[in-house]
Design a protein that fits this description.
By secondary structure, the chain is an alpha+beta fold. The protein is 65% helix and 10% strand.
Length: 269
Amino acid sequence: MNKAILLGTTGVAVALAMLAAGFIAGKQGVVADAPPQAMMSEAVMDRPEVERIVREYLIANPEVMLEVQAALDTKQKEEQRVASLQVIQDAKGDIFNSAHDGVVGNPNGKVTIVEFYDYNCGFCKRAQEDMLALTESDPDLRFVLKEFPILGPDSQKAHVVSQAFLKLMPEKYGEFHNELLGSKSRATEAAAIKIAVSLGADEAKLREEMKDPAISDTFARTYDLANKLGITGTPSYVVGDEVVFGALGKDVLTEKIAAAKAACASAAC
């Protein structure tokens, strides 16, 4: 809603400035090279008429608003891209190499893709096949799973279990992740514990590990990173120096990975 208001205000302001300038320049007794003060005075005097002209122009040419919106969207995306690039450079350790993130694929792969996900995110569930296909087809790919529980209390509790399991049994984390994310039922604390125990976790130790305050600290750091990167939903990815929003499919991610590999090769990283 705020963005819509901003777009409308911006469009009117731009149109007002352009039309007011043309209108004033054409007024009798006002020449094109008149001093700004004179034009401003005339603009104040004729404001009702200028506003009428602006309104009639926008009604007759509503596509102007679309052009303004498109230009603003392009500008905002570029500003976010530049800001995200700086965040990625400044927080590489937290993004790509946090000890609190699970890793699937090749742990020593030359290219890393980081996924921000929630166990109750339907799009994340559909994107799971992309992750499996990518890691199976590319032996040089390191896939980092960054837990980002944003879909309510059930998600929070399920991710707490996930973090505790990762601490106790990191070698089986990939299996745990695939089972919980791949489940058709809602991810809850009970469901996560059931899967963890089925994979060999000691339930008493697991529940004790779930009390570790470091888990909440980890989530807080992830929320902070997501905020700085402009990530508000799941799944979202960081590939190389780019943030990719949404479940865009295996083909798009493959292109991004190839671009990251090329950039890495040219930079000798």
